[in-house]
Known about the structure:
Blueprint: H1 2-14, E1 36-42, H2 44-50, E2 57-64, E3 70-79, H3 83-87, E4 93-97, H4 99-102, E5 112-116, H5 123-142, E6 149-158, E7 166-173, H6 176-183, E8 186-187, H7 200-213, E9 233-237, E10 243-247, H8 287-296, H9 298-306, H10 313-330, H11 333-339
Parallel strand pairs: 1-6
Antiparallel strand pairs: 1-2, 2-3, 3-4, 4-5, 5-7, 6-7, 8-9, 9-10
Helix pairs in contact: 5-9, 7-8, 9-10
Amino acid sequence: xxxxxxxxxxxxxxxxxxxxxxxxxxxRLFRDNSVLEVTITAPMKPLVRxxxxxxxxxxxxxxxxxxxxxVVLDIxxxxxxxxxxxxxxxxxxxxxxxxxxxxxxxxxKQNKLKLVVPCEDSDRYEQLLLxxxxxxxxxxxxxxxxxxxxxxxxxxxxxxxxxNDDVRYAFVIEHEERFAKRHGxxxxxxxxxxxxxxxPAELNLTSVFQFLIGNTDFxxxxxxxxxxxxxxxxxxxxxxxxxxxxxxxxxxxxxxxxPYAEPNDAFNLRNVQERMYRGRCxxxxxxxxxxxxxxxxxxxxxxxxxxLPGADNRTxxxxxxxxxxxxELIGKPxxxxxxxxxxxx
Length: 345
């Protein structure tokens, strides 16, 4: 098995495609961080009860463009996800737009988009969704090699008339293929890989970011046997021939602190808010640069929290406090050594 993994790593390092020095601009949808007011009209009752991951139900997606023009797009809508698909009142959704309709609109070049919604229809869970959204935005502030997100304020109208209209925040995530196009990278699918096959600087930066948000629910080298590599990471073939790891799905992190989130028993953590560094020892030389990048982005990160649309006082206060504990820690070399460098795996 070791011989096979060594061969795989060697092949990875020899087959890289060059990436452009500067990425292209994001698609128009993700260039603006303002909240987009949206109405989704669809058969909500079967969507919630049956939760099919295969069948798209017909609906419409309405918003007003920046010039005041009303836009109505036909969509397919279905359930998606794994853990949240099982436990949430409303599962995560996937929106399927018609390419012929989105030309010239805000959604030009969008086809299938992941829609992240509150796990329960309550103010509390809506705040948790906003906390996960801000985790994505924090990563955007640290590296452009991250999925862009756009916050929506959605009115859901049930075409069956069996559910009252509901209004909640949600957000869409940049599609993996659009991310690849923007960076000139190639998405890859593997059963597993090795740490040596990954871009070390980017892996270490995201490892420190995961420590910042208190997330341990990930693996950049392996996933569940039936799903392949990797757990809450997408890999792209990078400029050096190594894979660029891009994380996603942060609802089990301490910065979100969802009621359903529990740390892995193997980690011996009291709760998800207790941080645990899961960076790789092979990349410890990159820790100083990763720490410095977080310091450089500190002001921008706090500003993101301060300006978070829809956030209540508790969300702003608790998120700020959680960030404070991280920046206090990385401000002391002895603590960096104790809680990060020496805790590598």
